[in-house]
Amino acid sequence: MTRIIDGNEIADRITADLEPCLETLADAGTTPGLATVLMSDDGASETYVSMKRQACNDLGIESIHHELDPDAPADALFDRIDELNDDPAVHGILVQLPLPDHVDRQAVLERIDPRKDVDGFHPENVGRLVTGTPRFKPCTPHGIQKLLEAEGVETEGADVVVVGRSNIVGKPMANLLVQKSDTGNATVTVCHSRTDDLAAKTRDADVVVAAAGVPELIDGSMLSPGTTVIDVGVNRVDVSERRSEDSQTSSDQSDTEKGYELVGDVEFESAKEKADAITPVPGGVGPLTITMLLYNTIKAASLRADVDVSLP
Ligand SMILES: NC(=O)C1=CN([C@@H]2O[C@H](COP(=O)(O)OP(=O)(O)OC[C@H]3O[C@@H](n4cnc5c(N)ncnc54)[C@H](OP(=O)(O)O)[C@@H]3O)[C@@H](O)[C@H]2O)C=CC1
Ligand SMILES: Nc1nc(=O)c2c([nH]1)NC[C@@H]1CN(c3ccc(C(=O)N[C@@H](CCC(=O)O)C(=O)O)cc3)C=[N+]21
Question: Which parts of the sequence are annotated with region: Disordered (predicted)?
Answer without folding.
Answer: 239-259
